[in-house]
Specification:
alpha+beta; 107 residues; 48% helix
Length: 107
């Protein structure tokens, strides 16, 4: 499967995807760690992709999203943004609404 097809497949199969450095249990950069903390605070159900495990995907996603940095949060296949945007949306109460609309909040 081509790398772009893999990205599209991940986004189609999961309503919320965080492309990050490391894993939720062991983030390998502060921004990825903060993003996971915010998603956990929202009780979000989300998939993640450790970009360090797939260098081809890491490079292709930058072009696919037109976003040069990580982490990258997608909700319902649409790029939400990176850590600063995630925190800003959380602070405004908008992130929880977006996650709820995607049916991605644990009961």
């Amino acid at each position: 499967m081509e790398v772009i097809e893999r990205i599209k497949d991940q986004l189609e199969k999961n309503s919320v995807v965080l492309y990050m450095k490391g894993t939720p249990d062991f983030p390998q950069c502060g921004f990825s760690g903060q993003s996971v903390q915010v998603l956990n605070a929202c009780k979000a159900k989300f998939a993640y992709v450790n970009i360090f495990e797939d260098p081809e995907l890491r490079e292709a996603l930058k072009s696919y999203s037109n976003w040069p940095t990580y982490p990258q949060l997608y909700i319902k296949g649409e790029l939400v943004g990176g850590c600063d945007i995630i925190i800003d949306l959380y602070t405004k109460g908008e992130l929880l609404k977006m996650l709820a609309e995607a049916d991605a909040v644990a009961a």
